[in-house]
Design brief:
The protein is mainly α. The protein has a two-stranded antiparallel sheet with strand order 1-2.
């Protein structure tokens, strides 16, 4: 189906979307990798969080690929093409600490959001309102994933009183942060 957008615009837009699609696939696989290899005291919560995030990331792939097709271009064909275009770095380490997994994924989601904002500006200038709209939703989702990963990676500090004294309960921690330093 031909597009009424300019040929140069669709070429540039499809190139930007295909690069994002490669990053999305790479981030999906990294998120699943960390989901499969999660360990530690927060295993269940982290394992489920990463599974939920991986599902959300994978759901983006078809929408982005089909947008490229709708404007008259071809999209990714293989893992080889993904690896040539991806900018999200793989992590093939045998062991990664849970904290490092969450931090790396937080950084990758933040970087993906930034790259989508950069592509959005070019896509909007090219007149592709639909692709712009799609990216606006995905930028928000990537920022939300980064936020959840950030908050999940800072669990230990949530129960610490200013000065590093461990609090026995969330209620005591809440009192301490509000200025009430009574003992537990």
């Amino acid at each position: 189906m031909p597009s009424d957008l300019a040929a140069t615009a669709t070429r540039d837009i499809s190139g930007a979307l295909n690069a994002l699609l490669a990053d999305i696939f790479a981030l999906y696989l990294k998120t699943k990798n960390f989901h499969w290899h999660m360990s530690g005291p927060h295993f269940r919560d982290d394992h489920l969080l990463l599974d939920e995030q991986a599902d959300q990331i994978f759901a983006m792939t078809d929408v982005v690929a089909e947008r490229v097709r709708k404007i008259g271009h071809v999209t990714l064909h293989s893992m080889g093409e993904i690896s040539r275009l991806q900018r999200v770095l793989d992590n093939d380490a045998v062991f990664v600490t849970p904290q490092d997994m969450l931090a790396e994924l937080r950084e990758d989601n933040g970087t993906l959001a930034r790259r989508m904002r950069e592509a959005h500006a070019m896509i909007e200038a090219g007149g592709d309102v639909a692709a712009s709209s799609i990216l606006e939703v995905y930028i928000d989702e990537a920022e939300r994933r980064a936020w959840f990963l950030y908050e999940s990676s800072h669990r230990a500090t949530q129960l610490m009183r200013p000065g590093g004294i461990f609090m026995r309960s969330r209620e005591a921690a809440s009192r301490a942060y509000s200025g009430d330093l009574r003992p537990n």
